[in-house]
Design a protein that fits this description.
alpha/beta; 7 helices; globular
């Protein structure tokens, strides 16, 4: 039986005027790109939810699939394949046939923000979509935050307080009062890997811990 659906933001979502204006600008400049709120990828019956901050300009905003088409996706999807959370071949194309196994990917903000920096009011406007998503994942055990921004938004979406009791620390696995585990990782961006802040081995270590919890 297929998992139930939930209401994703409409492709012409009007909630955030700044993001709407940026979307229209990019639609005129790059008419072949997605340039719309990016839908989550994977099934709602997954045990793992990976949450990023927002779509990347030439990644998800262009292709319409989370972390698809940029460097962050290269590292993320190769890791998901390695740890059995994905099957198929990742080709940075939403039509590559890749599918997720026990895993779902979402963003705290569904639209591309200028300079990759959502405003607080935009996090607030988009949060109901993440909260609705979480509420419809009956088998969810672990949420992986890619970066501190995603970590903070997950705690807000779950209304976990005090948030300071669960600091963002790479490779830390927090047991939340909701019964879920929150795993932290530095974002798998090209900047973080080029500077050595995040290595492939460090990223894999996070997934080793997640796999242990999901056994």
């Amino acid at each position: 039986m297929a998992a139930p659906a939930f209401d994703e933001p409409p492709l012409d979502c009007p909630r955030c005027p700044r993001l709407v204006a940026f979307r229209h600008e990019l639609q005129a400049k790059y008419p072949d790109w997605g340039n719309a709120p990016v839908r989550s990828f994977g099934n709602l019956d997954a045990g793992l939810l990976i949450v990023g901050l927002a779509p990347g300009m030439k990644g998800a905003n262009r292709t319409g699939r989370p972390f698809t088409g940029d460097y962050a996706g290269d590292l993320l999807y190769s890791t998901l394949l390695k740890f059995g959370f994905a099957q198929g071949t990742y080709r940075a194309d939403p039509n590559d046939g890749l599918h997720l196994v026990g895993c779902r990917i979402a963003n705290a903000v569904r639209c591309l923000p200028p300079e990759n920096k959502p405003l607080p009011i935009e996090f607030t406007a988009c949060r109901p979509f993440l909260q609705a998503e979480l509420a419809m994942m009956p088998n969810l055990k672990v949420i992986l935050a890619l970066g501190k921004g995603a970590h903070d938004q997950i705690l807000r979406a779950l209304t976990v307080r005090p948030a300071g009791s669960y600091p963002f620390i790479h490779s830390r696995l927090h047991a939340l009062p909701t019964g879920l585990h929150l795993a932290d990782s530095y974002h798998c961006s090209r900047y973080n890997t080029n500077t050595g802040r995040l290595t492939t081995e460090m990223f894999h270590d996070v997934f080793e811990k997640i796999r242990h919890v999901l056994k």
